[in-house]
Design a protein that fits this description.
The complex is a heterodimer of chains A (423) and B (66). Chain A is α/β, with parallel strands linked by helices. Chain A has 16 helices and nine strands. Chain A folds into three domains: 199 residues, 3-Layer(aba) Sandwich (Rossmann fold); 81 residues, Ubiquitin-like (UB roll), CATH 3.10.20.600; 97 residues, NADH-ubiquinone oxidoreductase 51kDa subunit, iron-sulphur binding domain (de novo design (two linked rop proteins), Up-down Bundle). In chain A, the strands form two sheets. A five-stranded mixed sheet of chain A has the order 6-5-9-7-8. In chain A, a hairpin with a 5-residue loop joins strand 5 and strand 6. In chain B, the strands form two sheets. In chain B, strands 1-4 form a two-stranded antiparallel ribbon. The relative contact order of chain B is 0.35. Chain B is α+β, with helices and mostly antiparallel strands. The longest helix of chain B is centred in the last third of the chain and has 10 residues. In chain B, 23% of the residues lie in helices and 21% in strands. The chains are: A alpha/beta (423), B alpha+beta (66). At the A-B interface, helix 13 and helix 14 of A face loops of B. Bound molecules: flavin mononucleotide and iron/sulfur cluster (2 copies). Flavin mononucleotide binds next to strand 4 of chain A. One iron/sulfur cluster (SF4) binds next to helix 1 of chain B.
């Protein structure tokens, strides 16, 4: 298995999940013994592979692991499967369909940072995924895999911020699950006060394959900056939405062709709700790798790709997301609470045609002042989306500001905005 | 040395901006916006005073920065 072919993570999945350990080992082969592997060597392997995080921020995985190993005392690994992005389904898919790949990756990461315990965190509304994962953990315990850390499955209240790393650390410690002011960052003081490696579940699944096949194998796919493959969740105006594994650097239009558009394309949201809109005229020039996306101020983020068809109203869509951002604020930081509320209200007034003349300059000021002023990056991501919307749909916003709602404003929503559950 | 605000403890009454107008302005709701670069040596003394005067100890003088 050394050819540069896809799928990698989703290998061997046709009609049923790979829930049995035996079957998993048949598909991927055994994980090389970890006890003999030197910790720094394991981290160097991840570094050579060039693996970046798949939870949104694309941070080099090896650098985070090294930061954890620089701390004293026992550490802990958290596999982040919270998947707060409403348009993302890849993490749940992995945990459900190939749970052993994620657990292998967590075991390798635990070895690399010297952790005896690994916690897999996922949203508590998802019984199916939790049960698949718990069964996989039991399966491994029965098989007596010597290299495994002690696995825990934690089911957390789902909301947009749940997977932000300091919020996650808080929730896992029995706290309110809100982001905290840093430092200390999780790698300094995380779960149970220990140095904590928080890594997205897809990142860990790639780690499991790199440990098996090596860094060169990993780099046979992808681009120099973004080696390897990635999962994407494609939705919106497409004939066959779903989770797909692609090579980094794939043309965006090729991906859209493969799932089939079912409306004339207006724009594509890439990355997630903290992401960037690419207009229909930009789409043919874009490859799904940072080298190409950065020219548009975009990143692949959590791998979300939403096609917006000509039948949807981009102003109404952006407005709903602006309101969603304001509602999802953890309510702790003045700039975030006031800023996102004011932004949402003003965008809503633009959409309704009731905004006053200062609306655009107010939005420019607020959106440029907000980044880096919250305890977490929620306002930064929110502002990025708003600025991107105002740019990509400038003409439509101007029309709405003048004439009020259009006939497409009442079309069914394309971007989902789940309500936050209150207990 | 850089100044940082802990936005969770900051209550936004803007005392810091009064004490250090060269470095801190306020947004539309009275929350501070800091110049994020290294403090020039001649402002260090004032910056320290502003940090010590913040009633919620939200204004921090950091050596590491970021
Ligand atoms: C508001 C917010 C929400 C986030 N939600 C998630 C999430 O649901 N899942 C996730 O893996 N990372 C999420 N992240 C990123 C995490 O903080 C963290 O960077 C990530 O889990 C690290 O894993 P990675 O480096 O493997 O991507 C979120 C970040 C922010 C600012
Ligand atoms: S920036 Fe916003 S979402 Fe993040 S911790 Fe502060 S109030 Fe909560
Ligand atoms: S003095 Fe302290 S609480 Fe008041 S605005 Fe400045 S940082 Fe915030």
């Amino acid at each position: 298995m050394t050819t540069a072919s896809l799928p990698r993570l989703l290998l061997g999945l046709d009609d049923h999940p790979i829930s049995q350990l035996d079957e998993h080992l048949d598909v991927h082969g055994p994980l090389p013994s970890l006890r003999k592997r030197d910790r720094q060597q394991l981290i160097a392997l991840i570094e050579d592979a060039g693996l970046r995080g798949h939870g949104g921020a694309s941070f080099p995985a090896a650098r985070k692991m090294r930061a954890v190993t620089s701390r004293r005392g026992p550490s802990i690994v958290v596999a982040n499967g919270c998947e707060g992005e409403p348009a993302s389904m890849k993490d749940g898919t992995l945990l459900r369909e190939v749970p052993h790949l994620v657990l292998d990756g967590a075991a390798v990461a635990a070895r690399a940072v010297g952790a005896r315990a690994a916690i897999v965190a996922l949203p508590d509304h998802d019984d199916r995924t939790a049960h698949a994962l718990q069964a996989a953990v039991r399966d491994r315990q029965r098989a007596g895999i010597r290299d495994d850390p002690s696995f825990e499955v934690a089911r957390l209240e789902p909301h947009y911020l749940a997977g932000q790393e300091s919020a996650l650390v808080s929730a896992l410690g029995g706290g309110p699950g809100k982001p905290s002011f840093t430092p200390p960052r999780p790698f300094e003081r995380g779960v149970r006060g220990r140095p904590t490696l928080v890594q997205n579940v897809e990142t860990l699944a790639h780690v499991a394959l790199i440990a098996r096949h090596g860094a060169d194998w990993f780099r046979q796919l992808g681009t120099p900056s973004d080696p390897g493959s990635t999962l994407v969740t494609v939705s919106g105006a497409v004939a066959s939405p779903g989770v797909f594994e692609i090579e980094h650097g794939m043309w965006l239009s090729e991906l859209l062709d493969s799932v089939g558009l079912d409306d004339r394309l207006a724009a594509v949201l890439v990355g997630g709700y903290f992401g960037t809109w690419l207009t229909a005229s930009e789409v043919p020039r874009v490859r799904l790798a940072s080298e190409s996306l950065s020219a548009y101020g975009a990143t692949l983020g959590a791998g979300v790709v939403v096609a917006l068809g000509a039948g949807a109203c981009p102003v109404a869509e952006s407005t709903r997301i602006a309101e969603f951002f304001a509602a999802q604020s953890a309510g702790q930081c003045g700039p975030c609470v006031n800023g996102l509320h004011a932004v949402a209200q003003t965008v809503q007034q633009l959409a309704a045609g009731t905004a006053d003349r200062t609306a655009r300059s107010d939005l420019d000021r607020w959106t440029s002042q907000l980044p880096r002023r919250g305890a977490c990056q929620h306002p930064d991501g929110a502002v990025r989306f708003i600025r991107s919307s105002l740019r990509a749909f400038e003409a439509e916003f101007r029309d709405h500001a003048r004439r009020g709602p259009c006939e497409r404003c009442s079309s069914p929503p394309v971007l989902p905005t789940p309500a936050r559950r209150r207990r | 040395m850089q100044l940082r605000v802990n936005p969770i403890s900051c209550v936004g009454h803007g005392l810091c901006a009064e004490l250090l107008p060269e470095w801190i302005e306020l947004d539309d709701w009275g929350y501070p916006i800091l110049n994020g670069t290294d403090l020039p040596p001649d402002l260090l003394q004032h910056a320290r005073r502003a940090a010590n005067s913040c009633p919620t100890l939200a204004l921090l003088l950091d050596s590491e920065g970021g």
